[in-house]
Prior knowledge:
The structure is a single chain. By secondary structure, the protein is of the alpha+beta class. The protein folds into two domains: 1-81 and 93-116, no CATH class; 119-153, no CATH class. It contains six helices and four strands, in the order H-H-H-E-E-H-H-E-E-H. The strands form two sheets. Strands 1-2 form a two-stranded antiparallel sheet. Strands 3-4 form a two-stranded antiparallel sheet. Strand 3 (127-131) and strand 4 form a beta hairpin. Helix 3 packs antiparallel against helix 5. The relative contact order is 0.13. The model is unreliable at 67-90 and 149-153 (pLDDT under 50). The chain binds zinc ion (ZN). Zinc ion (ZN) binds at residues 119, 121-122, 124, 126, 138-139, 141-142.
Amino acid sequence: MPKSPRLPCDVIRDGVGYDLDLAKQSVGQGWHGIIERLFAAKPTWIQVIQVKEKFGGLRFYVNDGAVRADLFDPAAHVDSLAIPPKHGSQGDGEDPVRAGVKAYWELVQDAEAESFKVCEECGKPGSRCTIDHWIKTLCEACQGRLCDGSTSD
Ligand SMILES: [Zn+2]
């Protein structure tokens, strides 16, 4: 049973996307600073469609209004962007929408890479570890705390 009040499908259906609060609820508080930074830099026309932790790293999915973007393979998606030209055909000049998407993707990629070095629980410097078959990025103190919890009682 999902605990969050809004499901990803609701987020897409209501056309709003993840807001800052929902994004923060989706990951540990150690990454809230990263999330806040990404929302502050986000162009208003880019929607955040999913935020989650996977394999110890932050996943921050966005939608430019035309396609779903997988940020782990941004190059492929930049090439395949199907943004309809609004004022006739585009020349060789770079589409400002496409340029904006690219720039934001780079920012998100940096943030995702950073998340592998930041404890998801408390925000201190951390590293990837495996706890009970889950890969998490945690600092030493949080690793010890969570391991203790899984071995006693
Ligand atoms: Zn920690």
